[in-house]
């Protein structure tokens, strides 16, 4: 039996079987605890036999098991208490050469003496390899954890006196030798573990793992042959961003159009009209308007697509030099394919994704600009591999033999995994630093040679050219719902009319034989239903969709050309990337904002630093600063100060650019890095030279060169960045800078001198609104570094899980850090941010700030930007566990519920750790309720996915319209989750702007975008939709009234073509005028008085109640418009040409009165009259009269409209017509005028009052003050029952 467990007096004893074959074992974690005795906690390796000893199968099983355990650790396990090997020196034994298992087994079985307060802290794979969230508290690993080694901590158990005396004597004699021996053993354990980890990576390369359904084959990677035929055919480099071509336009366009239910409905009507003797309106009265609307949309699509084709052709026809058969040939971009070796010259775009081989600069360096990819104008450095850097002429390039293995095409801009395998040479890892992406431009480098790896639509640029998620406005959703209701009413009217026709026909067919109504069709209910279905179909406006599209498109142009939202410094106007959400901007209830770069400028300035328990500030010159004086005077902390400044000037990826006047400009990937390097320069440590091998600094006049061995780059998961350098003295050092949460947990237990003082200084910096970073250093033993380098190299050339393996290997070396101090950088607020936030709060909008910064920094910024007022209470949730978070949330929810107000004047501040617990399923509802009760919410230390979760939680639960605004790639998730996404085209690039619905250059422009354009567009779209339904119901319900007099026969009252042209010609212009030029107040007034935003925010202009009021109003108008002319023509009249009045004359009179009435109705609801509004309303009326004059004389010149011949003379020569032309519209609109008069006097709204003051050219401030006083009085009455305990600041800390 390989392992025996014996229970004796409450203890668990493990007997290790040393003779078990190592080939049949694999490691798992076991935690052993001794009960009823002093605390003993052991996590050690247990050996288990495997079912099979086949090496290949066993390795596969081991890796699969390890992967599952590591994946579980990533999501569920806290970090180990200690992460360093050096603490092994606390275990003092004689058998220092024994293996780990032997030492642990011996200590448990009594072979090794157990000391008081001793512990074994071995670098477990779980803690050192980054499998654990670094933000979670330090807690012991559970028995289910997987680990390569463990933690043994024990107090002194009962021991034999002799053993104790022997151990004490030995310690006194050999204490120094023991320390040296243990240090050596720590190094041996480190190197042993690194070799073990490297072996795992080698196994992964030899046999890729199979986890679950994942099967790694050659299909999972791309193989590119250098200077030879490719193993498979790859796509060419031709791109096409157009939607259509000559062959696909008609089917694709029709498919897109008939995905809309309204177009399908009208197509159905048009098809039904083709059935003989069914359609009362003719065969083409619906088809022609439908074709016209589709034609307008088609012309719009063609114009846009032609522009795309022209742009594509311009790009595809660009030329580049390609190496063919030992010579350079000029070819088009479209002719390139994977494996081609090309030459790119300065200020030229890269035609495809390339691997950099060599360049005109030393060590195959080159500089690129990626503004087209991410918006960043800073130059970035790329460097080819040393093995290809010497390929500088054509002969060398043609002799390059080997292959490139890389990942399949994907859309990850900042990630790439590949391996270069030249014949007869070792494999070389390829990463993102060797990739030149299509869309980037070569800068400051005369030329480069590169090999194409991805071409055409497989390039990363084209992979990212996907459309944003489809969003629909609230108004659209409500409109569709009401259309369905109208459709149900239409069906009901059809059934009712069909049944009435059936009953009337059955009653009159025996007696009124001359009508010829005894045939099958007249008595068929089905035929009658189809007839009335066609007759009433226009209750749903056919032109509504195309009108909305055009109006929204023009509204978007108004936003784009608003000079008040143009930022001159960056030459960046506002941009509406979608027009479907224009009216949604007028319904915003919640705003979720990033902080850095959104509320602040993201222009960093180095302000302070903390070194060796002291705070230093920058001065005008380095010599004036106290920090430099301490260095020159050789203060006791001078060594730490020098190392601190060296770290600032070396630990970065900044590229210096020397100008002719001697000045140095720093090109950095982030403003933080630039500020830190500039801060070192202000203290006299000037970074001025970078090559791939080394960096040089001028340290107070002394030149120092540091050989850069490795750069461990910053990621959002790591939250830190490190470089490993060889100092001028030949030592190997690790320089690290990062968030305090990740730096502090990696500090060596022996180097904690500045821990508490620095932590206090960090809180002080954060309270001033400064951004903070911690700086630390570690000395690396050459032997350990040598082993780690091999492990890191194996991770860097792995094609499977390279990112996680690199993160693991980085965690291995970033341990035992010595804290040097911290930095404080100022990020000032953007112009107009406090005023904008104050205005948005007055408008009734709730503002949440979601940031990754420290809690104190976020609170301070909240005060600075007026998000938090001095009268506002602050409730802080900063808990360390799920239970504590639940207790705090439930307690505060109970307190708020016991008060009389639901909208407390409280700011809730919560950190990312507590938010993780608060968003769990069982607590989400209560936390959401607490948040919605608060006026302001600030979430600190949150990840991008947490931002999206918070936005989605509020959007789904409240059903309110939400807006998310940010400027960086970490804000894309929440921007796409919100109802409306706003991207700021700022310093962090255009990732957020490209993923947004609208983009602006500064946060202050959000005020105008929401309060002006949002409120205006909501009012315009609302009135447009309501008016469109009103005018259709007003006309087409008259057919129902006429059916009462036509025996429910389906006979139409109007001429068939006038029915079809009603929406697309005679009443088409008033909706456009309303949708484009309507505004209830001027822009200055809207910005001055944010309370005017509330009517649109509360959806008072368009809701179910308002919609059906308009429908009822249209029904009432149709009654007046039909029966008043009918009563006027009860007595028959005879004209001079012998014609008598018939139904068509009545129909044209009614049609005229309908057009006049609906046009006047448009004027009645218009608040802002322009000359275009006048032209639309009066021009539509005039257009109808011109149509009557022309259409009456078409027949017999053309063979249609015979029943309309001479209609103008009949209609216009009748005094009754002119009398009714004045009487009928006035009578119809009289009720509307009276209701409007009562509303504007008795039930006057704040908006009406302000508009009256504008019309009278008076200052509306007095009206606004009265309204504000009324609101304050109402709010104070609501708060009388509020508990006194809720008026104080509540803080809950772990």
From TrEMBL:
Residues annotated for ATP binding in this entry: 594-596, 673, 714, 737, 771, 851-853, 941, 947, 970-971
Region (Disordered): 34-70, 134-181, 198-218
Domain P-type ATPase C-terminal positions: 993-1244
CDD domains per record: P-type_ATPase_APLT_Dnf-like
Name of the protein in its database record: Phospholipid-transporting ATPase
Similarity comment text for this entry: Belongs to the cation transport ATPase (P-type) (TC 3.A.3) family. Type IV subfamily.
Compositional bias of kind Polar residues: 34-55, 134-156
E.C. number(s) listed in UniProt: 7.6.2.1
Compartment(s) where it occurs, according to its Swiss-Prot or TrEMBL record: Cell membrane; Golgi apparatus; Membrane
Organism of this sequence: Drosophila mojavensis (Fruit fly)
Record-listed Mg(2+) binding positions: 594, 596, 967, 971
GO molecular-function terms, A-Z: ATP binding; ATP hydrolysis activity; magnesium ion binding; phosphatidylserine floppase activity
Catalytic activity: ATP + H2O + phospholipidSide 1 = ADP + phosphate + phospholipidSide 2; a 1,2-diacyl-sn-glycero-3-phospho-L-serine(out) + ATP + H2O = a 1,2-diacyl-sn-glycero-3-phospho-L-serine(in) + ADP + phosphate + H(+)
Keyword match Isomerase: no
Membrane topology reported for the UniProt record: Multi-pass membrane protein
Listed cofactors: Mg(2+)
Active site residues of this protein: 594
Keywords: ATP-binding, Cell membrane, Golgi apparatus, Magnesium, Membrane, Metal-binding, Nucleotide-binding, Phosphoprotein, Translocase, Transmembrane, Transmembrane helix
A GO cellular component annotation in the UniProt record: plasma membrane
UniProt domain P-type ATPase N-terminal: residue ranges: 231-287
Ranges that cross the membrane: 483-504, 524-544, 1060-1081, 1102-1123, 1143-1164, 1176-1196, 1216-1235
GO biological process, one term: phospholipid translocation
Classification via PANTHER family: PHOSPHOLIPID-TRANSPORTING ATPASE (PTHR24092:SF150), PROBABLE PHOSPHOLIPID-TRANSPORTING ATPASE (PTHR24092)
UniProt biased composition (Basic residues): 57-66
Superkingdom: Eukaryota
């Amino acid at each position: 039996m390989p392992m025996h467990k014996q229970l004796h007096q409450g203890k668990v004893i493990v007997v290790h079987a040393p003779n078990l074959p190592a080939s049949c074992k694999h490691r798992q974690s076991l935690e052993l605890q001794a009960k009823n005795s002093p605390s003993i906690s052991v996590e050690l390796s247990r050996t288990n036999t495997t079912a099979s000893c086949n090496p290949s199968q066993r390795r596969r099983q081991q890796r699969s098991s390890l992967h599952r355990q590591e994946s579980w650790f990533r999501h569920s396990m806290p970090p180990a208490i200690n992460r360093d090997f050096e603490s092994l020196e606390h275990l003092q034994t004689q058998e220092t050469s024994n293996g780990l298992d032997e030492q642990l087994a011996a200590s448990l079985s009594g072979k090794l003496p157990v000391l008081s307060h001793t512990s074994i802290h071995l670098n477990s794979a779980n803690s050192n390899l980054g499998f654990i969230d670094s933000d979670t508290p330090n807690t012991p690993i559970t028995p289910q954890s997987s680990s390569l080694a463990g933690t043994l901590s024990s107090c002194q158990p009962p021991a034999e006196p002799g053993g104790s005396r022997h151990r004490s004597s030995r310690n006194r004699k050999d204490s120094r030798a023991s320390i040296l021996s243990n240090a050596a053993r720590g190094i041996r354990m480190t190197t042993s573990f690194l070799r073990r980890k490297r072996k795992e990576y080698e196994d992964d390369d030899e046999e890729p793992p199979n986890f679950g359904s994942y099967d790694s084959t050659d299909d999972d990677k791309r193989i590119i042959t250098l200077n030879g035929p490719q193993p498979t055919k790859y796509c060419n480099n031709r791109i096409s961003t157009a939607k259509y071509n000559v062959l696909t336009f008609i089917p694709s366009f029709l498919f897109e159009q008939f995905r809309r239910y309204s177009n399908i409905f009208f197509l159905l009507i048009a098809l039904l009209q083709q059935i003989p003797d069914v359609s009362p309106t003719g065969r083409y009265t619906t088809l022609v308007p439908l074709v016209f609307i589709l034609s307008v949309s088609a012309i719009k699509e063609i114009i846009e697509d032609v522009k795309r084709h022209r742009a594509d052709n311009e790009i595809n026809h660009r030329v580049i030099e390609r190496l063919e058969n030992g010579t350079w040939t000029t070819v088009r971009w479209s002719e390139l394919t994977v494996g081609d070796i090309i030459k790119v010259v300065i200020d030229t775009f890269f035609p495809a994704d390339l691997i950099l081989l060599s360049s005109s600069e030393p060590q195959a360096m080159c500089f690129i600009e990626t503004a087209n990819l991410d918006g960043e104008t800073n130059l970035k450095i790329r460097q080819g591999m040393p093995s290809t850097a010497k390929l500088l002429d054509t002969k060398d390039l043609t002799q390059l033999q080997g292959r490139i293995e890389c990942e399949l095409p994907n859309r990850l801009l900042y990630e790439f995994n590949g391996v270069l395998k030249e014949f007869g040479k070792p494999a070389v890892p390829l990463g993102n630093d060797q990739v030149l992406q299509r869309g980037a431009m070569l800068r400051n480098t005369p030329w480069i040679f590169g090999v194409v790896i991805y071409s055409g639509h497989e390039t990363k640029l084209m992979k990212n050219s996907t459309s944003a998620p489809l969003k629909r406005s609230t108004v659209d959703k409500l409109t569709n719902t009401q259309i369905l209701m109208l459709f149900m009413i239409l069906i009901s009217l059809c059934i009712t009319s069909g049944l009435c026709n059936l009953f009337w026909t059955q009653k009159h067919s025996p007696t009124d034989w001359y009508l010829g109504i005894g045939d099958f069709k007249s008595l068929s209910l089905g035929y009658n239903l189809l007839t009335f279905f066609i007759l009433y179909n226009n209750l749903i406006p056919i032109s509504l969709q195309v009108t909305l599209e055009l109006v929204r498109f023009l509204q978007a142009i108004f936003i784009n050309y608003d000079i008040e939202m143009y930022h001159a410094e960056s030459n960046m106007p506002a941009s509406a990337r979608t027009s479907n959400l224009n009216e949604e901007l007028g319904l915003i209830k919640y705003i979720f904002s990033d902080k850095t770069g959104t509320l602040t400028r993201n222009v960093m300035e180095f302000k302070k630093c903390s070194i060796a328990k002291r705070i230093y500030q920058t001065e005008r010159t380095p010599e004036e600063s106290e920090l430099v004086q301490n260095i020159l005077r050789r203060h006791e902390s001078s060594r730490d100060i020098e190392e601190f400044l060296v770290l600032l000037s070396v630990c970065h990826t900044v590229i210096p650019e020397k100008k002719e006047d001697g000045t140095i400009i720093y090109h950095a990937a982030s403003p933080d890095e630039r500020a830190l390097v500039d801060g070192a320069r202000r203290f006299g440590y000037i970074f001025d030279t970078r090559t791939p091998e080394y960096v040089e600094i001028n340290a107070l006049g002394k030149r120092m060169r540091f050989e850069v061995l490795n750069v461990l780059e910053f990621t959002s998961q790591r939250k830190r960045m490190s470089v490993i350098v060889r100092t001028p003295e030949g030592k190997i050092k690790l320089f690290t800078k990062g968030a305090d949460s990740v730096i502090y947990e990696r500090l060596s237990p022996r180097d904690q001198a500045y821990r508490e003082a620095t932590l206090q200084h960090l809180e002080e910096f954060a309270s001033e609104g400064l951004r903070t970073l911690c700086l630390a250093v570690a000395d690396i033993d050459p032997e350990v570094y040598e082993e780690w380098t091999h492990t890191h190299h194996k991770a860097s050339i792995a094609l499977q899980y390279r990112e996680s393996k690199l993160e693991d290997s980085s965690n291995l070396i970033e341990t035992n850090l010595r804290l040097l101090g911290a930095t404080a950088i100022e990020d000032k607020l953007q112009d107009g941010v406090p005023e904008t936030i104050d205005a948005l709060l007055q408008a009734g909008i709730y503002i949440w700030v979601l940031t990754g910064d420290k809690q104190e920094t976020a609170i301070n910024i909240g005060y600075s930007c007026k998000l938090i007022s001095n009268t506002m209470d602050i409730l802080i949730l900063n808990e360390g566990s799920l239970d504590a978070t639940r207790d705090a949330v439930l307690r505060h929810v109970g307190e708020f519920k016991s008060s009389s107000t639901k909208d407390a004047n409280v700011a809730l501040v919560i950190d990312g750790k507590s938010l993780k617990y608060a968003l769990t399923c069982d607590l989400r509802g209560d936390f959401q309720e607490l948040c919605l009760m608060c006026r302001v919410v600030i979430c600190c230390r949150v990840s991008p996915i947490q931002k999206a979760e918070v936005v989605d939680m509020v959007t789904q639960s409240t059903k309110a319209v939400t807006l998310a605004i940010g400027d960086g790639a970490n804000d894309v998730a929440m921007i796409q989750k919100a109802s409306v996404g706003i991207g700021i085209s700022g310093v962090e690039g255009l990732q957020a702007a490209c993923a947004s619905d609208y983009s602006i250059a500064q946060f202050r422009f959000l005020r105008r975008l929401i309060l002006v354009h949002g409120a205006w567009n909501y009012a315009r779209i609302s009135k447009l939709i309501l008016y469109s339904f009103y005018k259709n119901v007003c006309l087409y319900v008259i057919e129902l009234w006429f059916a009462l007099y036509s025996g429910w026969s389906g006979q139409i009252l109007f001429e068939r073509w006038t029915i079809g042209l009603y929406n697309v010609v005679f009443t088409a212009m008033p909706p456009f005028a309303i949708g484009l030029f309507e505004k209830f107040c001027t822009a200055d007034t809207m910005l001055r008085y944010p309370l005017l935003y509330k009517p649109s925010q509360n959806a008072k202009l368009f809701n179910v109640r308002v919609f059906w009021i308009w429908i009822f109003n249209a029904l009432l108008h149709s009654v007046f418009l039909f029966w008043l002319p009918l009563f006027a023509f009860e007595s028959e009249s005879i004209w001079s040409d012998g014609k008598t009045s018939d139904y068509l004359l009545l129909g044209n009179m009614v049609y005229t009165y309908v057009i006049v009435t609906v046009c006047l109705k448009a004027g009645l609801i218009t608040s802002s009259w322009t000359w275009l509004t006048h032209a639309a309303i009066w021009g539509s009326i005039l257009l109808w009269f011109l149509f009557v004059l022309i259409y009456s004389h078409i027949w017999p010149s053309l063979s249609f409209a015979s029943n309309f011949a001479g209609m103008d003379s009949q209609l216009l020569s009748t005094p009754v017509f002119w009398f009714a032309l004045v009487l009928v519209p006035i009578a119809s609109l009289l009720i509307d005028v009276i209701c409007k008069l009562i509303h504007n006097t008795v039930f006057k709204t704040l908006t009406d009052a302000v508009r009256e003051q504008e019309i009278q050219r008076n200052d509306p401030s007095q009206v606004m003050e009265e309204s504000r006083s009324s609101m304050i009085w109402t709010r104070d009455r609501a708060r009388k029952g509020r508990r006194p305990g809720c008026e104080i600041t509540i803080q809950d800390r772990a």
